[in-house]
Amino acid sequence: MIVLKNLTKKFDQFTAVDSVNMTIETGEFFGLLGLNGAGKTTTIGMLSTLLLPTQGEIFIDGELLTRKRTDLKQKISVITQEYSMRQDMNMDEIMEYQGRLYYMPKKEIRKRSEELLEFCGLINDRRKTVRKLSGGMKRKLMVCRALLTNPEILLLDEPTAGMDAVSRRQMWNLLKQLNGKNLTILLTTHYMEEAEHLCARVAMMNHGKIEKISAPQDFIDELGRFAVDETEEGKAATYYFHIKEEALKFAAQINGSFKLRDTTLEDAFVERAKKDEIR
Ligand SMILES: Nc1ncnc2c1ncn2[C@@H]1O[C@H](COP(=O)(O)OP(=O)(O)OP(=O)(O)O)[C@@H](O)[C@H]1O
């Protein structure tokens, strides 16, 4: 279990993460959502101990996380937004290098690498250098590398940024399978469909603060499960309803064209952002 208590990070006078309180259960698939600059990466940075909190604490399974607690740090693996791999190494070499960093025996590195590369569908490309891999393959390799040391918690900062639709879905399947094996996953994403598809709960972060934590469906229900997209004289607007009959009644009096559909987490996210702009 991960517990953040009043977690705060200031860069000089600017507060990037502001008294965040949050609990992520063991084995949970949790999403951290928010506009650019909301404080998501900074939160991940503190969880990975790359950044030190200005105030507040992080507890892993009830124990205070500090840079000195290698035992706790070993439970956590992080995958950052940037590809941080040597271009001239092949997959086997990348895995071996990582294993050696953590003083893993050679035999174990080889066994676990093989399992992971197989699991991620990369085994046939293991001799390819990073330079020759597609963006999707590189991201999968980063997952393999992060899992080599058998972490209990995986932190992913925008794991599918820039991926094509097919690779993204492959990554989703992979992450779901890993979570099925009780890996706790915390991800940040700008793809609301991704969060809706994967996360049991999401936190909406805004200007460093957590505004609300709930299941994606709760955000949708709060807004109204039924959406009517109206297009009239080139203008588009969306209206939300809790009851389907009401949505249909509304749609019947529209002069232009309309589409009745299910509300998505993206709708809920955009509406919250609009309200914040007005405030
Ligand atoms: N090292 C730093 N020094 C000063 N300000 C920083 C630093 N790192 C982040 N910030 C600021 O803190 C705020 C939060 O940044 P952060 O990267 O955590 O946001 P984010 O939610 O991950 O955004 P994005 O979705 O764009 O990745 C931003 O205003 C950013 O400019």
Describe the structure.
The chain is α/β, with parallel strands linked by helices. It is built from ten helices and 13 strands. The strands form three sheets. It has a six-stranded mixed β-sheet with strand order 6-7-8-3-9-10, with helices on both faces. A four-stranded antiparallel β-sheet has the order 2-1-4-5, covered by helices on one side. It has a three-stranded antiparallel β-sheet with strand order 12-11-13. Helix 3 packs across helix 4 and helix 8 crosses helix 10. Adenosine-5'-triphosphate (ATP) is lined by residues 11, 14, 16, 34, 36-42.
List the helices and strands and how they pair.
Elements (H helix, E strand, L loop, with lengths): L1 E10 L2 E11 L4 E5 L6 H8 L7 E6 L2 E2 L5 H4 L2 E4 L11 H11 L4 H14 L15 H13 L5 E5 L7 H16 L3 E5 L3 H7 L2 E6 L2 E6 L1 H8 L2 E7 L2 E7 L2 H9 L4 E6 L2 H14 L1
Parallel strand pairs: 3-8, 3-9, 6-7, 7-8
Antiparallel strand pairs: 1-2, 1-4, 4-5, 9-10, 11-12, 11-13
This protein binds adenosine-5'-triphosphate.
Structural class: alpha/beta
Report mean pLDDT, rounded to a whole number.
93
Low-confidence stretches: none
Number of helices: 10
The end-to-end span amounts to: 35 Å
Report helical residue fraction: 25-40%
The strands making up the biggest β-sheet line up spatially as: 6-7-8-3-9-10
Strand content: 25-35%
Number of strands: 13
- Give the bound compounds: adenosine-5'-triphosphate
Spell the H/E element sequence. EEEHEEHEHHHEHEHEEHEEHEH
Shape: globular
Round the Cα radius of gyration to an integer and report it.
Answer: 21 Å
Largest sheet: number of strands, sense, barrel closure: 6 strands, mixed
